[in-house]
Specification:
The complex is a heterodimer. Chain A is of the alpha+beta class. Helices cover 42% and strands 12% of the residues of chain A. Chain A is built from 31 helices and 23 strands. In chain A, the strands form 9 sheets. Chain A has a 4-stranded mixed sheet. Helices cover 33% and strands 12% of the residues of chain B. Chain B has a 7-stranded mixed sheet with strand order 5-8-1-9-10-4-11, with helices on both faces. In chain B, a hairpin with a 2-residue loop joins strand 2 and strand 3. Classes of the chains: A alpha+beta, B alpha/beta. The interface between A and B is large, with 100 and 92 residues.
């Protein structure tokens, strides 16, 4: 499978070109889109990858959006393209409350919604292409700087951030800390799911509900420590003294929980807590409370990717941060002793050591957990245990059989990963792993001795040549309680293998599912259902793919006929950039997908979303070029992505706003590598920073901005009910500053521009918009707002 | 701090709750509510729109009755407590997700009164009630798909979902767990936990100080969460500690009715014990795959909701499912009606505003016009008794949200997108 930049999906072409502009692309002829003519840019980056695949199903003269201002022609003629360009130029100039409609609608951020739902996300290159198109249409585009619109930092650095442990990471981390399988007395509140993934850093926050649950879990874990205290104490409290032994415990257990040495302030805090509680309750109960506190502290719950200023405008992750990043990426758990020791020694700053450690961790059998998890979230099969099937129709689909189905998929992923298998093989292999029960269920003969997990390696005869597409896990999850569903199965291919977002059925259209009619096959029922032209626009993208799965019933079992009807499982892939093809049967579809550059690029995109778990604009673009290149070079080998990510600048570097109370951008880069930045800087707050937003809501707090930023607020107009102000922000320092200004507003904010506003207690924080977020030395920018009293 | 009480007045929830003698439950006087102001708000949600022709009752401003076989007919025994509100539109919203997002927000943003919060969260924040919980969100199988626009209805701010707790055993622990054991023991335990929270706040502030502006909201949220935890630790339980609910697999489709009943019991207890003034219960979520198998059904609720009128048997199944949800709503009303206010001023129901909200109107068309609402309770006199049907064709449901705010004693004249209309619904207030 060879991927050339000529035929790349837009997502990747854009990523490549942006990175070329960052000075890291080589010999990439798509890298000059910044200075494309409007028609060239439109055809290549707006029409083909966005409009022609995601919009036209509704936005056509016959589609559900035929009454909107964006009606496109699907003809492949030059005239049609020119007409579409003209239409899009007009649409690009429409605004809603100062925001371009063309950006609000497809992201479903328009106040009146997008009837087709969200078809793009803000972090997608497609969005950036539309952004550039708006700039071109409104005359705001400058081709010289245009390609910088993708916010990938020039060095490939990602955004500084903290990542709360997700619930699985928490479990695996706690198991390692306690050296046993820990069962929390509480199930944590489910996190928000972004693009199908439950580990996105932007979604992982601590709510009041979760904070209470963390408390319960931490106290239960602390009970286990207290019950087995000798195993956790690094000393004998009788011989060395209780306070001394408590301090040693805090240092040791804190080091493991925080994944770095505690700072002096942190150590002191826990020692103070110990002393207070020990005075009343004695040694062991006080250790229990100290443990409970450590296990619900931010230092345990969040891992940081903040780094230390490298003197070149970036932050290099500390050795301890790198150790955690590597270990959570590969094992989903905190660093082991060897990795921790390398971090303490500062050795991980050496990329070769880092890669060697990555290879060591990949060889650990527990690394399959992350692979399984990715597979489950990518293909959305994790919900298999809970999907409801009519027990009268599918009595054999027991909970154990469902577990076996998930096991089959896990086994195949794991085996291909270990054996150097490729994405193409994942989608087309006949090889599989079945328990005897699952083999009997499928009607396959699987002879031989099961492996220790109970699975026998065998070849599928029904569903041969269709890899994971023929797995009961996928087929059952994507079906209905009583029948197969060409729609659900077509959707999973479109959304998870092509990375295309399909809009929901438009309102006011009869979305009645085809009633079960014994006189018709499933295919005919759906064909009839989609004959309405309003429905057909979308369903012709979905159903003809879904029909390929019709030999498999709603519970994943092969069926020779659909009731009394013969099965026609031919179909067609359409509305793609380079994968359009007719096919026969599931193996035929699998062959088309397994050979598709778009599917390969989508896989890289999916894995990247899972692995870097970032919603920061540009972060995906920062890694995708590296990863796609590596994936391509490795001919689609599944094991090529992890090491490519570890080798990328993204893995080691961060950029972003400078903490006014924390790190100094010109800070101490010669610090002892064993000392951790996060520990060293906690006490150097600027006074405004120590104000507690929850404690002093009325505050009278002074305006606030980072060091080096001065600002002037001027009232432009004032009337009895309100005012409008302009704030000029100046960088008086010698380095670029990503600015913010926190103001106390004397009324409700009704409008603002050139900045993004967020309430902060009773004050309001303004940060720059994309185009003025960073101010060069001795330069200024301004923003404005209006208030109603 | 008042002395804690532990008497197992409530042996076994469910039937036990309804039969339990709720005497001497409350130990502290509550602030007297102003006339015409509700003390509490409860939001009840069930998914996937409705079939308007089978939902709409008969009646008018002073009368209410239910056609035989209609969706709301199970509410007949409690009709005197109801105000059925028909005809409201979600302006600028359509479809499952749009409806779910707009239902309690009216498309609010930072720039308007709501600041992007849902009406329950807004009211909870504005009330500043001296209760252990600012609000309580309970769910019944809301989260198998994780948190998303589809699965969440409450918002702490733009795009910030509030996650309901789907597990009755955990809700019980959250409400009463601190009070199990001797009084002195419980007091000491809370003091210890408060001290730990103090340390956690210091730690969180330190970490916050190292972050850039984009990441600080995470730690701000964490600090707010710790403040809420601390608030929960400083309260007293206003009533006897009941027995824990029976163990149940809260994720099992077949256990849906039991989970729902336990959550309604706990919600009622939380209000009876004055642990919060604002609570919600969310049954599943939009596009719900729940199969009401206990009614003999085998198709998912979402599939049933889209069946058109040509399939009479199919529509009947959906109506049967909707009638089951009406029974659950009736159960909530009955629970609240059985519990006297501690100051002798009527029942909990008399002083509570209960809102049954849905996210769409006619589900077959995926539209958010003519969205059905049922209000229940006296709302402290804001709503009259006797039962009535009010029609507001073409009116923004934002005005209902304003009415809800005003029933709770707030004075805002708009909620969410102010351009969709101002003022409360006319003729709603008694």
């Amino acid at each position: 499978m060879k991927i050339s930049s000529d035929t790349l999906p837009l997502a990747l072409t854009l990523a490549l070109s942006a990175l070329a502009a960052c000075g890291r692309g080589e010999g990439d002829d798509s890298g000059d889109q910044g200075c494309d003519s409007d028609p060239e840019f439109f055809e290549r980056h707006v029409w083909k990858p966005v409009l022609a695949t995601r919009c036209i199903s509704c936005h056509s003269s016959e589609g559900a959006a035929k009454a909107t201002r964006m009606v496109l022609s699907g003809d492949n003629s030059e005239e049609a393209l020119a007409a579409n360009l003209a239409t899009l130029r007009e649409v690009a100039r429409l605004e809603s409350e100062g925001q371009p409609l063309l950006l609000l609608k497809p992201t479903n951020e328009h106040p009146q919604m997008h009837q087709g739902g969200a078809v793009l996300t803000r972090d997608s290159p497609e969005y950036v292409a539309l952004e550039q198109w708006v700039a071109r249409a409104t005359g705001a585009y400058d081709c010289e700087g245009g390609a910088d619109a993708l916010a990938c930092d020039q060095s490939g650095a990602g955004a500084r951030r903290v990542r709360r442990l997700d619930h699985r990471e928490y479990q695996q981390t706690l198991d390692a800390l306690l050296r046993r399988a820990f069962t929390a007395p509480v199930t944590f509140a489910p996190d928000d799911v972004i693009d199908g993934y439950s580990n996105n850093a932007s979604a992982l926050k601590v709510s009041p509900l979760l904070a209470g649950q963390y408390r319960e879990a931490a106290e239960a874990a602390a009970d286990e420590i207290a019950a087995d205290l000798a195993a956790f104490l690094p000393c004998d409290p009788v011989s060395v003294g209780e306070p001394e032994c408590a301090a040693a415990f805090i240092k040791d257990f804190g080091r493991r929980a925080y994944r770095r040495p505690l700072s002096a302030a942190e150590q002191q805090r826990y020692e103070d807590l110990f002393k207070e509680f020990a005075a009343e309750d004695g040694f062991a109960p006080a250790i229990r409370w100290v443990s409970a506190a450590i296990l619900q502290s931010p230092g345990f719950l969040y891992r940081t990717e903040l780094g230390r200023a490298d003197g070149q405008g970036h932050y290099a992750l500390t050795p301890h941060e790198l150790a955690a990043e590597l270990s959570y990426l590969i094992l989903g758990a905190s660093p082991d002793d060897q990795l921790s020791q390398l971090a303490d020694e500062g050795a991980l700053s050496d990329p070769e050591v880092l890669v060697a450690e990555a290879e060591r961790l990949l060889a650990d059998p527990t690394s399959e957990r992350m692979l399984h998890r990715f597979a489950e979230e990518w293909l959305k099969i994790g919900r298999l245990p809970l999907v409801t099937r009519d027990p009268a129709l599918f009595p054999d689909l027991t909970p154990q059989l469902r577990a076996d189905m998930l096991g089959e998929t896990r086994k195949l992923f794991g085996a291909l990963f270990r054996e150097g298998g490729t994405l193409g093989e994942l989608l087309t292999t006949s090889q599989t792993y079945l328990t005897p029960a699952l083999a009997a269920y499928y009607g396959e003969a699987a002879g031989g001795q099961p492996d220790p997990d109970g699975f026998i390696k065998t070849n599928r005869t029904r569903g041969a040549g269709a890899g994971v597409l023929a797995h009961g896990s996928l087929l059952t999850t994507h079906a209905l309680p009583t029948s197969s569903s060409p729609i659900h199965r077509g959707l999973v291919v479109r959304e998870r293998l092509f990375c295309q977002h399909m809009p929901p059925p438009p309102p006011a259209v009869n979305a009645s599912p085809p009633p079960v009619d014994p006189a018709l096959s499933t295919r005919d029922r759906y064909a009839q259902h989609s004959s309405d032209p309003t429905c057909a626009g979308c369903h012709k993208l979905i159903d003809p793919i879904g029909f390929a799965f019709e030999h498999f019933d709603a519970a994943g079992r092969w069926r020779p006929t659909d009731g009394v009807h013969t099965i026609d499982d031919s179909g067609e892939v359409s509305h793609t950039q380079s994968t359009n093809a007719a096919f026969q049967g599931l193996a035929g579809l699998a062959a088309v997908l397994g050979d598709s550059e778009e599917v390969a690029a989508c896989y890289v995109d999916q894995w990247s979303r899972f692995a870097i778990a970032s919603a920061a604009p540009g972060d995906l673009a920062c890694v995708e070029e590296e990863l796609l290149g590596a994936f391509n070079a490795a001919e689609g080998r599944l094991d090529s992505l992890v090491l490519a990510l570890v080798r990328s600048p993204y893995f080691r570097l961060r950029t972003g706003q400078i903490a006014d109370g924390g790190l100094d951008p010109t800070g101490d880069t010669t610090a002892d590598p064993t000392a951790d930045t996060t520990g060293d800087t906690t006490t150097t707050g600027d006074p405004t920073d120590t104000a507690d937003p929850t404690e002093d809501p009325t505050g009278g707090a002074d305006p606030d901005a980072p060091p080096g930023i001065e600002f002037e607020r001027k009232v432009d107009s004032m009337w009895p009910a309100g005012e409008c102000d302009t704030v000029t922000v100046t960088n008086t320092s010698q380095a670029p500053i990503t600015w913010y200004v926190v103001l106390t507003l004397q009324g409700a904010l009704v409008n603002h521009w050139n900045a993004v506003a967020t309430p902060e207690g009773d004050r309001t924080r303004f940060v720059g918009a994309d185009y003025n977020a960073t101010i060069q030395p001795n330069n200024s920018t301004s923003f404005g707002f209006c208030l109603e009293y | 701090m008042s002395k804690l009480r532990r008497r197992n007045l409530l042996r076994g929830l469910g039937v036990g709750l309804v039969a339990a003698p709720f005497v001497d439950l409350l130990l502290r006087p509550r602030r007297a509510a102003a006339a015409g102001v509700a003390r509490r708000l409860v939001v009840f949600f069930s998914p996937n729109g409705t079939v308007p022709a089978r939902w709409t009752p008969e009646g008018g401003p002073g009368s209410l009755s239910f056609p035989t076989g209609s969706i709301l007919e199970p509410l007949a025994p409690v009709a005197e407590h109801l105000t059925v509100v028909a005809g409201l539109d979600f302006f600028g919203a359509d479809n499952h997700e749009g409806g779910m997002a707009a239902m309690l927000t009216n498309q609010g943003s930072l720039a308007d009164v709501s600041a992007g919060m849902s009406v329950d969260q807004y009211i909870a924040k504005e009330l500043k009630a001296d209760t252990r919980f600012t609000s309580l969100e309970l769910g019944v199988q809301t989260s198998a798909w994780g948190g998303s626009t589809q699965t969440r209805m409450s918002y702490a701010g733009p795009g910030a979902f509030v996650t309901p707790d789907d597990n009755p055993a955990q809700v019980y622990t959250r409400l009463f767990g601190d009070f199990v054991g001797g009084d002195a023991e419980a007091m000491k335990l809370m003091a210890r936990r408060q001290r730990v929270v103090d340390l956690l706040v210091d730690e969180a502030r330190d970490l916050r100080g190292q972050l850039g502006a984009e990441e600080r909201p995470k730690l701000d949220a964490h600090l707010e969460a710790l403040a809420q935890v601390e608030k929960g630790l400083s309260g007293v339980v206003g009533c006897a500690v009941p027995d824990a609910p029976a163990a149940v697999n809260a994720l099992d489709n077949g256990a849906f009715p039991e989970v729902g009943a336990a959550q309604l019991d706990l919600l009622t207890l939380a209000l009876a014990c004055d642990m919060t003034r604002v609570a919600s219960i969310q049954f599943s979520h939009t596009v719900s795959p729940t199969v009401l198998s206990w009614l003999g059904q085998s198709e998912g609720h979402h599939s049933l909701s889209h069946i058109d009128d040509s399939n009479v048997a199919g529509v009947d199944q959906f109506v049967a499912a909707e009638r089951w949800f009406a029974e659950q709503f009736r159960g909530l009303i009955e629970r609240l009606a059985m519990i006297p206010e501690p100051d002798g001023d009527g029942t909990l129901l008399d002083n509570t505003l209960v809102v049954w909200a849905k996210e769409m109107g006619d589900s077959r068309a995926h539209v958010c016009t003519g969205v059905p609402f049922v209000l229940a309770g006296g709302a402290g006199g804001y709503l009259p008794s006797g039962g009535r049907l009010l029609q507001f064709p073409g009116v923004s449901h934002g005005r209902l949200l304003v009415s809800i705010c005003q029933a709770m004693g707030l004075s805002n004249d708009t909620f969410g997108n102010a351009t969709y209309g101002a003022g409360p619904l006319e003729g709603l207030r008694a």
